[in-house]
Amino acid sequence: MFNPLFSHSRRNLARWFTGSMGSILVLFAGTMFFLETQEQMRAFDQELLGKTRTMAAAVKYRLHEGRWQMELNDVPVLGSNSIPYDSEVRYVRWYDREGRLTRFVGPVPPDRLAIAPGFVTLSTPQSLRQITLPVVQNQESLGYLQVAVPLTPVRSNLQQLRLFLAVGVPLALALIGTAGWLLGGFAMQPIQHAYERLQRFTADASHELRTPLAALLSNIQIGLVKPATNPETQERRLHKLVDITKSMTVLVTNLLLLARHEAALPKGTLQTVDLVPLLKDMAETFALEAVHHDLQFECALPDTAIAVRADADLLRQAIANLLSNALKYTPAGGKVELRLTAMTQRALIQVNDTGIGIPAECLPHIFERFYRVDAVRTPDRQQPEKSGGFGLGLAISQQIVQAHGGTIHVTSTVGNGSCFAIELPLTNGRFRRVQPP
Ligand code: ADP
Questions:
Q1: For residue range 189-199, what is the model confidence (pLDDT) as tens digits?
Q2: pLDDT confidence of residue 416
Q3: Quick one: DSSP state of residue 242?
Q4: Nearest-atom index, ligand 1, CA of 371
Q5: Which residue has the higher pLDDT, 388 or 177?
Q6: Whose CA is nearest to atom 21 of ligand 1?
Q7: Element (H, E) at 160
Q8: pLDDT band (50, 70, 90) for residue 428
Q9: How far is the CA of 315 from the centre of ligand 1 (A)?
Q10: How many angstroms separate the alpha carbon of residue 231 from the centre of ligand 1?
Q11: Which region among 66-70, 150-154, 420-424 has the lowest average model confidence (pLDDT)?
């Protein structure tokens, strides 16, 4: 279902599509009708000319007192209603070279030739096509043969075509309109989804910012109403304000990160990165933190380089999110493991832990923005670094990995631990073995 904004755009798209395609269709139908009319008339005239020529050739002439005259036996009988040449012929008229009526068949014509040689369409009472053909023998004009036939065949052909277009064009327009409506829907769908995602994201972000902002405001108000009398209370209050501000900074930084790297990274920003030293460096940092949490930290890296095209800082951030989650959600005494393996065309980075795990019903949502498994495990929104966080870490990791053309997966069992796996395409799609220095 589309919201009113998108329904309106969809209607407009359908209207524009129907308008433009309909105009093309009408133009096409009009041109087709015009050309067909021309062609039908041309063929009809050609036939009439042939018929008239045959009549002219069938008539015999004789020289009488120095002038060519028709032989009476061979011409239609004057004033007769029967037309001997062709039953489709409405009338035949003979005019001498001065344009005087000599013989005729059919309705009584004017005495003088009124129309110049050529074709003409007469519309009374029935549509007739008339030809006036000059008859010449031995380069001497003998007179004019005027023949008229009804235009009925052409008219009925064109009438049929008109009927076909009158039914076909509106039908085609209706089909175009429906297609436009459906296509508009298809075109609108991804835009609507993106719009809804953006709306949800803005709503979620504002909601998340409201809590620390309210805490900030209330702490400042308390400070104003009851100014601290001793420096210790003052310092505690200021530390609290710093903590809240820090958490808001983290949230805003994460939101910006998500907003910036929505699409695939531009090729120019990627460099060939050897994952082995990058992960080794990260392992050293997180091993120290693991000690701090009373956790065992293991790192399994290959001896040879594994190169991928990446933005090293972003990739580091994606892996760091997984590692800090593993430390965060693994109770003291547990184990966190970082592994790197080269597969046929991909590099596989795994972050395994023996922590609390994730319930199966939560796994499909785990990479959604602001998703946290439960409030009990992630209670303190004002101090995310001390609790579960904002629920943005995995969304950020996934977005970064996808922007690199990779994938991220999770398998987890409650009480046993979780395994997060990142797969990235190797440089040139192949694993390149480079000897370490
Ligand atoms: P947060 O900042 O809240 O940790 P994340 O997006 O990183 O947000 O994680 C989302 C939720 O997934 C967390 O709230 C946590 O409940 C769960 N989670 C993530 N990683 C692990 C893990 N390694 N073990 C158990 N639960 C995890």
A1: 888 888 887 88
A2: 95
A3: H
A4: 10
A5: 177
A6: 325
A7: helix 152-225
A8: low
A9: 18
A10: 38
A11: 66-70
Residues 6+ apart with CB under 8 A from 128: 90, 121, 122, 148, 149, 150, 151
Helices (H), 262-392: 275-292, 312-328
Instruction: Tell me the helices (H) and strands (E) count for the chain, helix number first.
Output: 6, 14
Tell me which residue of 73, 74, 109 sits closest to 91, measured CA to CA: 109
Mean pLDDT of 117-132: 88
Atom 20 of ligand 1 has which residue's CA nearest to it?
325
Q: Looking at 226-311, list the stretches that DSSP marks H as alpha helix, in order from N- to C-terminal side.
A: 231-260, 275-292
Domains of the chain: 265-429 (3.30.565.10)
Test site for ligand 1: of 378, 394, 408, 412, most ligand atoms within 8 A of the Cβ: 394
C-alpha distances (whole Å) from 284 to each of 80, 88, 253, 297, 419 are 121, 106, 25, 10, 20
Nearest alpha-carbon partner for 403 in 287, 265, 286: 265
Please tell me which residue, 389 or 92, carries the higher pLDDT value.
92
In whole angstroms, how far apart are CA 310 and each of 144, 267, 277, 430, 433?
93, 9, 14, 15, 18
Distance 341 CA to ligand 1 centre (A): 24
What ranges in 88-151 are assigned the alpha helix state H?
none
- Of all protein residues, the one whose alpha carbon is nearest to atom 17 of ligand 1 is 373
Ligand 1 interacting residues, C-beta cut-off 6 A: 321, 325-326, 329, 353, 355-358, 366, 371-373, 377-378, 388-395, 418
Run of H or E residues at 93: strand 91-95
Sign of CA dihedral 50, 53, 59, 60: negative
| 126-173: pLDDT as tens digits | 889 999 999 887 787 888 889 999 998 899 999 999 999 999 999 999
**Average pLDDT of the residues in 402-415:** 94
Mutate-to-test residue for ligand 1 from 372, 386, 398, 419, highest number of ligand atoms within 8 A of CB: 372
Q: How far is the CA of 196 from the centre of ligand 1 (A)?
A: 24
Do the beta carbons of residue 330 and residue 336 sit within 8 Å? yes
